[in-house]
UniProtKB/TrEMBL annotation:
<dbReference type="GO" id="GO:0016301">
    <property type="term" value="F:kinase activity"/>
</dbReference>
<dbReference type="InterPro" id="IPR011611">
    <property type="entry name" value="PfkB_dom"/>
</dbReference>
<feature type="domain" description="Carbohydrate kinase PfkB">
    <location>
        <begin position="4"/>
        <end position="290"/>
    </location>
</feature>
<dbReference type="InterPro" id="IPR002139">
    <property type="entry name" value="Ribo/fructo_kinase"/>
</dbReference>
<keyword id="KW-0808">Transferase</keyword>
<dbReference type="InterPro" id="IPR029056">
    <property type="entry name" value="Ribokinase-like"/>
</dbReference>
<dbReference type="GO" id="GO:0005829">
    <property type="term" value="C:cytosol"/>
</dbReference>
<protein>
    <submittedName>
        <fullName>Carbohydrate kinase family protein</fullName>
    </submittedName>
</protein>
<dbReference type="GO" id="GO:0006796">
    <property type="term" value="P:phosphate-containing compound metabolic process"/>
</dbReference>
<keyword id="KW-0418">Kinase</keyword>
<dbReference type="Pfam" id="PF00294">
    <property type="entry name" value="PfkB"/>
</dbReference>
């Protein structure tokens, strides 16, 4: 595979538009309900597959019906799921997302089998053979906070593999341990809130510069409607978001990571890859779910 995504695998159940939770046994009629593959590894893998990049994913799901669905839908989109392990008696991670009319997305979440993913679950040979490895959700895959996994990333990078890293949560208690990954990755792609928590900085520009000092070649801070900041040794550059009608922001970060990875694989520089990530995120924002709008080749 050209890309291997490693980490969080989630089933999302999305409904829109939701203005309030009905009281008692009341029912509100909605325009749309979808169930999709999501999470910082699974969602990014589907986005990559839908824009034509060969991709495999590695992670953990339960032996339940949700796991059956997640593997089926990823495979249907063209993702190689043979590296996903199944945990007997565990639940597959899942979220219920009531999408507000403005595209906002509060969530109800069960972390499930993701928490137990470990280095022993991964196919080291396939990982080191990839052109790019995307780490998705290392803040919650605690079993990969492991010197053996860091060494595996080092071996992959020595062989020419690009390593990118995205996070899943905005939970302050999970941020400090993430910094141990930074010497082992090429590009970090946090959102603004995550970048500020990771660094302790006061502004996203200061956060990007501080995190760059931990080892990555580049830090790309995504900022929703404000676009993104790209920090490299050459400085910090703002990349504006595209002006599109927003239906649902679910999966925009995963799509950005997919577009960014595709850009790097096409030989673009970091700014060019960030613009392709921006285009992917804009497509996803226009529909419901983390894979909306990503049918066919991507261009900015």
């Amino acid at each position: 595979m050209t890309v291997v995504t490693v980490g969080v695998q989630i089933v999302d159940v999305l409904a829109r538009p939701v203005e309030s939770i009905p009281s008692g046994q009341d029912t509100h009629l909605l325009e749309q309900i979808r169930i999709t593959a999501a999470g910082a590894a699974a969602g990014t893998a589907v986005a990559l597959a839908k824009i034509g990049v060969p991709v495999a994913t590695m992670g953990a799901v339960g032996d339940d019906e949700l796991g059956d669905f997640l593997l089926m839908i990823m495979a249907r989109h063209g993702v190689d799921v043979s590296g996903v392990v199944r945990r007997t008696g565990e639940q597959t991670a899942a979220s219920i997302l009531p999408i507000r009319p403005d595209g906002g997305r509060p969530s109800f979440h069960v972390p499930g089998a993701n928490l137990g993913l470990s280095t022993a679950d991964l196919d080291a040979g396939r990982l080191t053979a990839a052109k790019l490895v995307h780490l998705g959700g290392m803040d919650v895959t605690w079993g990969l906070h492991d010197p053996e996994f860091y060494a595996l990333l080092g071996k992959a990078r020595e062989g020419g593999t690009i390593v990118t890293l995205d996070l899943l949560s905005n939970l302050p208690d999970l941020m400090p341990a993430v910094r141990a990954f930074l010497p082992h990755v090429d590009y970090l792609l946090p959102n603004e809130e995550q970048a500020l928590m990771l660094s302790g900085a006061a502004t996203p520009e200061e956060a990007a510069a501080a995190l760059l000092g931990d080892g990555p070649k580049g830090v790309i801070v995504t900022r929703g409607s404000e676009g993104s900041l790209v920090a490299t040794a050459g400085g910090v550059t703002a990349v504006p978001a595209l002006d599109v009608p927003v239906v649902d922001t679910t999966g925009c970060g995963d799509a950005y990571c997919a577009g960014f990875a595709a850009g790097l694989l096409r030989g673009r520089d970091v700014l060019g890859a960030a613009r392709l990530g921006t285009a992917a995120a804009a497509r996803v924002a226009g529909g419901l779910g983390s894979d909306a709008g990503l049918d066919g080749p991507l261009d900015d």
